[in-house]
Amino acid sequence: MLELKDLKLSYGSTQVLNGVNLSVKRGDVVSIIGPSGTGKTTLLKCINYLVKPASGTIAFDQIRMDYQRADKAAIQAIRLRTAMVFQQFNVFKNMTVLQNVMDPLVVVQRKSTDEAREIALRELERVGLSAKRDSYPSQLSGGQLQRTGIARALAVRPDVMLFDEPTSSLDPELVGEVLKVIKDVTSSGITSLLVTHEMQFAKNISNRIVFMDRGVVAADGSPAEIFDAPSNPRLAQFLQSELAFQ
Amino acid sequence: MDVSAMIPELFSALPLTLAITFTAMFVGFCLALVATTLRVRRIPVVSHLTDLYVSYARSVPVVLQLFVAFYGLPLLVALLGAEDFFSPTIAAMVGLSFYHGGYLSEVMRPAYLAVDRGQHDAADSLGYTFRQKIARIVGPQAVHFALPGYGNSIIYLIHNVALVMYIGAADVMATAHLIMERDYNQYQFETYLVLAVIYALMCLIAWFIVHFFELRSPMQAPEATTTAQIKNAAIASV
Ligand SMILES: Nc1ncnc2c1ncn2[C@@H]1O[C@H](COP(=O)(O)OP(=O)(O)OP(=O)(O)O)[C@@H](O)[C@H]1O
Ligand SMILES: [Mg+2]
Prior knowledge:
By secondary structure, chain A is an alpha/beta fold. Chain A has helices at residues 40-47, 72-81, 97-107, 113-126, 142-155, 172-186, 199-205, 223-228, 233-245; strands spanning 2-11, 14-24, 29-33, 55-60, 63-66, 82-85, 160-164, 191-195, 208-213, 216-221. Chain A has a single domain (2-244), classed as 3-Layer(aba) Sandwich (Rossmann fold), CATH 3.40.50. Chain A has nine helices and ten strands. The mean pLDDT of chain A is 93. In chain B, helix 1 (3-12) packs antiparallel against helix 8 (172-182), helix 2 packs across helix 7 and helix 9 (188-216) packs antiparallel against helix 10 (227-237). Chain B has helices spanning 3-12, 14-41, 46-59, 62-79, 88-114, 117-125, 130-161, 172-182, 188-216, 227-237. Chain B is flat, with a radius of gyration of 21 Å. At the A-B interface, helix 2, strand 6 and helix 3 of A face helix 6 and helix 7 of B. The structure holds adenosine-5'-triphosphate (ATP) and magnesium ion. Residues 11, 16, 36-42, 165 of chain A line the site of adenosine-5'-triphosphate. Adenosine-5'-triphosphate binds at residues 11, 16, 36-42, 165 of chain A. Chain B: Residues 10-210 form the ABC transmembrane type-1 domain. Chain B: Pfam families: BPD_transp_1.
């Protein structure tokens, strides 16, 4: 349902994406792993056009776009069908938890306040934040902020969820509560792309693992293929260092 | 003629003083909005011209800016064939509006840039249009960052209104001087004292209003802020 071809992007003179190819089928849960700075975040941002690739194409069901001829309608259509969860949460700081989840429904999807409220309350229940619905972000823990971010993303009923290292700026004791919510989301059958450094978690929830290295997809396979029998030497090295670290 | 008679006389000039202040506040705010938009968008030439305007407003002494308005405006209105339009009061309003607009733009621009990049990313990825994003998310947060600086800029504006007497506008300051001359400079100290109280009051009220909004900002509250807390904090800081 989602296919990226030959994505290239550089920041100034540093080439970050060197021709990334990635295709995701409906219902896939794909974890993207790889060393820091290889462009994992950048890749997710390309899908929503938060950064502008120099070249490459994206196909999202019947929506097709060449990044060299970016077109507003296609960008908006893709944005409406995907939802992103950010490493830094990016919960709207001027709104309460409930407003954060409701606002996109009212403003972007033009739902009535009542309907938006109903959906938002259901999603907050799902991530275990009903009690905090009237709190402002400055009053929440990292884990609660990230669960707000996840509820906001789920509320728009996306076809694809994009998680960018959702737990890596959390205190260790808060990681569990967020991973639990993500596991609940991915097991509900929604197509998901997850950038993560939580190897064990990736192995447990994904049906596919993509290893990114130096701006390209260097290995791509089932969790067993990637974790138990890594064929790529850089992948083996990476896994070893990650496991040593954990 | 005694001291207390001069107070109502001074106050009679207050409406004009306030009219100049509020006009400069309003027009300056609009100018600052436009200038800020042009500057953050970085449009070639236009943005540079706007930078030039802002550095004029911020670096040229305000008295001088008033003289520029006073002597420059007649040339402009003559060009437009609207000489009747010109008066010292109008020149004061124009001069101070331009000063305040430039100054305020340098409050707004950093406030806009202080809004976390991630807030833009989140709004964009959810499909907000640029206008929706500014109206719902980035704008309100920028207002929060801008409020303290805005309060200061209003106080500076009020102070600088006292300079309009140099171009012959009849504000409280000018009126005070008229009174003193008429009364053979008997009550100079008293008159200046009353004047000082008037300015202090105007600044205090302005500051109080801005500070009220500062405390009410949701981004501020580390825990639920109650109205009582707002009141206490406001009283404590006076
Ligand atoms: N806005 C930017 N301007 C310049 N360089 C950037 C910018 N954003 C990212 N980079 C650089 O691009 C490279 C890829 O960044 P990216 O955030 O995509 O990596 P990542 O794989 O997500 O890493 P991590 O695992 O640390 O999150 C890095 O070298 C980073 O320094
Ligand atoms: Mg990253």
